[in-house]
Each structure stands twice: as C-alpha cells, then as structure tokens.
Amino acid sequence: MLNDKIKEHLTNNSSPINWESVHSARESFLKYRKNLKEIQVEVAFIENRIVTYNNLTIPMRIYTPEGIGPHPLVVYFHGGGFVLGDLSSVDNLCRYICKYSERIVISVDYRLAPENPYPAALEDALASIQWACNYAGEINAESTNIAIAGDSAGGNLAAQAAILLRDSKEVSINSQWLFYPWLDFKLNSKTHKLYGEGYNLTTEELEWYTSFYLPHHVDRDLPNISPLLQKNLNALPDSIILTAQYDPLQNDGLVYAKALLDAGNSVDYTCCKSLTHSFLNMTGEIDEAREILDQIVAKMKGRNNKATLERY
Q1: Range from 11-15, 34-38, 53-57, 212-216 carrying the lowest mean pLDDT
Q2: Which has the closest alpha carbon to 238: 271, 262, 265, 269?
Q3: Where do the Alpha/beta hydrolase fold-3 domain residues begin and end (predicted)?
C-alpha cells in the first residue's frame, strides 16, 4: 500500500513540475526539491571545484567527512532525466552519505540535455571517475576503494560507467550503488503499465526527457544507452540496487539485478515497499525513506575496508 504521507503529497501536488519548457521545468524542479523535507547534516569540509580531464571541464562538489583519512570515496551522479537537476538537488543526500558512511563524496555536475545531448553526460561521468582515481591523493581519498552511485538518470550513468570502465587499467571500482535507476529507454515494461501515471514519476515525463537527451538519429535500444540491453555483464563491481514499489522504473532495477546475478556478480537488491521514485529526497518526512537511507550508509561504511556483499 502506498505510504500515506506520499499519497497525501501526490493528492495535493499532482504535477509539481512545469513542463511548458526546459527552463520552466528546471526552475520548478529545483523549487520542488527545496520544498521536500530532507535530513540536513554538517560535514567536515565542502569544496566546489572545476576539474579538467580528457579535454572536458567538469564542475564537482567534494564532501569530506571528519577524520584523518585517507578516506574511501563515492562518486555520485544526480537524477533528473538527463535534463534537470544539479549539485544542489542532491546536496543533502550527499552530505548524509558523506557523514554516515565516512567517505568522501564527489557529486558530479555533468552536462545536461538539450544543450548537451547523449553522450555528453556519459562522457562527463567516465572522465570524473577517471579523475577521481588518478587524483584521489589530492583530495585525501583512497584510489583503491572507490564506489560509484546515482539515482534515476544518475543510476544509468553509474551503471554504464561500471561496464565501460570494467577493463580499465587505471580505474578500480569497488561497488556500484543504483537507486531507482533508469536503465531501459523502451519504456514498455509492466511497471510502466502499472505505475506509469499518478505516482510522482510518469512514463510521459520519461518520454519528455528522452526527447531531449537522445538525438533523433540515436537508437534508444543501443546497449550503451540502455544498460539493461548489455549482453556482457561479467566481472562487474558488487552491485547494490534499490527500487521503489510505485515506480514505473521498478522493473528496470529488478531485471538488471537478475541479469547481474546470472552473469556471476554479487548483487544486493531491495524493492522498497510503499514508496515512489525519488524517496531518498523525502527522508525528513517519510520514516521508511530515512530507515532505508540509514541502511544504505551503514552498508557503505561496512565496505570501507573493502568488505564483500557476502557479509550482509
């Protein structure tokens, strides 16, 4: 059953985003995110930095926890359908992860569509991870214990990066954390039919995002766009995947978790009952969301010494 507070919120705010234009959608999205009640915490140090790597210039926000270090590292990619969102839209979430996982968090302000359609966001994601590995010492981080994470569209970027950097000699990704990830652009799964309207994120909105992110000549069924269609999923990092019950993208995470398991990977999969897409941004008002976030950071902290999923 849908969480009562979310149900009330959806009843009173049927469409908090103004979809008339990209500009209006971005403005209303950020306003909506600011109005969501999240747990706010302080960390030891926050730095806004612009890095250059592989001829790309990428803004980042780096969160450092208390302690001497060097610290394990998380590279985080925000959601927003590749069109919306920025560093501020996941600021509270990154602070929380940093403080309670005791990891440095690098939040990546990757390029957005339609100004920069596919593959710009993916190029930025790959370059930011490579930069983090090569310059970990510069930010007091461990280059040998790196996690990548993302929600929704950011989960797509994290999943793609894990695959594309699998054989890299300079990058070693220890784990990937995919929160209600968007992994299939066909948008025709059973959960789109069940939850594609009326539950915070709609299939129609996902089509709107896709129209800006993917140029007309790009096939949305390409594996490098939809990770769910990748044929070789062997030898990938340990995967922690969370989906929401009332989410059109629920099937994306579930099917991907099964595919990763079938390929011989370690997978920790949870479908979060009673919740909708973006529940990690509701931790200040939804007790279940706060509990799940606490479980996430506890697992992440437990892997600070490279623990494997078998311990959980």
Answers
A1: 11-15
A2: 265
A3: 74-280
Residues 149-167 as b or e (16 or more Cβ within 10 Å = b): bbbbbbbbbbbbbbbbbee
Which residue shows structure tokens 């995470």? 253
DSSP letters along 80-146, please?
Answer: STTTS--GGGGHHHHHHHHHHHT-EEEEE----TTTS-TTHHHHHHHHHHHHHHHTGGGGTEEEEEE
- What is the spatial order of strands in the sheet that 141-151 belongs to? 45-53, 56-64, 104-108, 71-77, 141-151, 173-179, 238-246, 267-276
**DSSP state string for 171-202:** --EEEEEEES----TT--SHHHHHHSSSSSS-
Q: Which tokens is 237 given? A: 């990092």
139 SS3 class: helix
Q: Which amino acid is located at 67 in the chain?
A: G
- The residues with which 147 forms a beta bridge, in sequence order, are 74, 175
Taking the C-alpha atoms of residue 57 and residue 55, their distance in angstroms, rounded to an integer, is 7
Q: What is the mean pLDDT of residues 17-34?
A: 91
Residue 197's domain comprises: 4-311
Determine which one of 89, 107, 152, 278 is catalytic: 152
pLDDT band, residue 218 (cuts 50/70/90): confident
Q: Is 89 a catalytic residue?
A: no
Q: Apex CA 2: angle with CA 90 and CA 19, to 5°?
A: 50
Confirm if 30 and 306 have CB atoms less than 8 A apart. no
Number of domains in the chain: 1
Question: What's at 39, amino acid-wise?
Answer: I
Residue 95 CA to residue 306 CA, distance in Å, equals: 22
Cis peptide before 114 (omega within 30 of 0): yes
Contact residues for 57 (Cβ-Cβ < 8 A; gap 6+): 50, 51
Q: Are 37 and 285 in contact (CB under 8 A)?
A: yes
- Amino acid letter for position 48: N
CATH number at residue 10: 3.40.50.1820
Q: What is the DSSP letter of 70?
A: P
Amino acid at 99: K
